[in-house]
Amino acid sequence: MSEPDVPPPAPTAGPVALLARTLAFLGGVSLLIGACITTTSVVMRWTTSQPIRGDFEMVPIATGIGVFGFLAYGTLMRANILVDTFTTWLPKRVTDVMDGFWTLVWAALTLWLAERMMVGSLDTLASGTRTIGLLALPYWWAIGIGALCFAATGIAALWWVPRHLRGRG
Fold first, then answer.
1. Which InterPro entries match (predicted)?
2. Whole-angstrom Cα distance, residue 26 to residue 142?
3. Residue 134 contacts by C-beta under 8 Å, 6 or more apart in sequence?
4. Residue-wise over 47-67: b if at least 16 C-beta within 10 A, else e?
5. Which range, of 40-44, 75-79, 115-119, averages the lowest pLDDT?
6. Which candidate among 56, 64, 140, 142 keeps its CA 20 to 30 Å from the CA of 116?
């Protein structure tokens, strides 16, 4: 009987792990804030017929930041969806190289998205673009946070690439 594949441990210390954990924690806080705003607004609408002013502007920003916050941690912990239906029969060395390649593609994509979002954030700041609605919130900072989260995700993916290629992924 062969032993089951046990994934190698993800890093628990170091700057990459600290950044991923911090962003995930802040992402969770952001989601909780969005949930509290929604709940309070619904209760206020039900009891006083007046919701929180601008709730429909604040909640999408909070939830978007929340989702972005978990990307690096999910990548670092290898908690993303993996589809290996067509590769289970291949030798482990071949699947390790394939995993290394696709992790490198993921890193390149997220780093490119981080760069593009940073450009978008600076452009949004320069143009003074705001949300359309009651509060007219500036949202360049939210785009910048998304860029940071994508950059951290790319760094987390790059942490795994050499490990995959050495057969330790």
1. DctQ (IPR055348)
2. 13
3. 53, 54, 57
4. eeeebbebbbbbbebbbbbbe
5. 75-79
6. 56
